[in-house]
Amino acid sequence: MPLSLENHRTAKIDLGGVPLVKKLRLALYISIAAVSLLGFIFPYQHPHFWWQKIPVFDAVFGFIGCIVIILFAKELGYRWLTRDEDYYD
Questions:
Q1: Largest Cα–Cα distance in the chain?
Q2: What is the domain count for the chain?
Q3: What are phi and psi of 84, to 5 degrees?
């Protein structure tokens, strides 16, 4: 559907029946899988620490660390920043 002046405010980007966001999400998942496979194919040549011998450990550790930081920040915001509805009354 070509864009026109009549529907320019409600126009959405559509690429072949699949919305752009879904295609970008699929591309992200494919790139994560490809980089993870590269971690198995090309491991550290000379590991200095025991965790460097485990393939893709750095990526998994970073992902888990991000999840922990997000959950901690949400809990901190809930317990420390939120107040009761009648706090200022």
A1: 64
A2: 1
A3: -65, 160
Task: Specify if 86 maps to a domain.
Answer: no
Could you tell me if 16 and 9 are in contact, meaning their C-beta atoms sit under 8 angstroms apart? no
CA dihedral of residues 72, 73, 75, 79 (deg, nearest 10):
130
Q: What is the pLDDT along the chain (89 residues), one digit of tens a residue?
A: 555 555 555 555 555 666 888 889 999 999 989 988 998 898 888 989 998 899 889 889 999 999 999 999 999 998 888 888 888 87
Alpha-carbon distance of 22 to 29, in angstroms, equals 11
